[in-house]
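Reply to dn_fold:

You asked what the input looked like. This is it:
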Amino acid sequence: MTRSLKKGPYVDAKLMKKVSLRKATQGTIKTWARSSQIAPEFVGYTFGVHTGKNFDDVFVTEDMVGHRLGEFAPTTKFIKHGGKMQKETEMAAKAAEIAAATAAKATATTTAAAKK
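and this is what came back:
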């Protein structure tokens, strides 16, 4: 559910204070406030949003206003689904790439020999 209109958007007070004291050209603003909404005053700043392990840099644009900071810094890293079939298809693609590279190399050497 969205936040009540009478309460207004949630913007972390510390974060708003950091933005008001800093110029846009300075470095990143580190924050742990992932639930803070992006206010129009944040446009043009780079935030280091904490992901639980490190800080992901998020450059705020006009399209991001109203969203939460945490939406742009994922906390989990997707590792592809797969298994035996996925591995076989990857190996086949890799073998085809190697074959194409060796064929291109062979034609390059034959054309170089023909020019001499």
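DSSP finds two helices and three strands in the chain.
Hope that clears it up.
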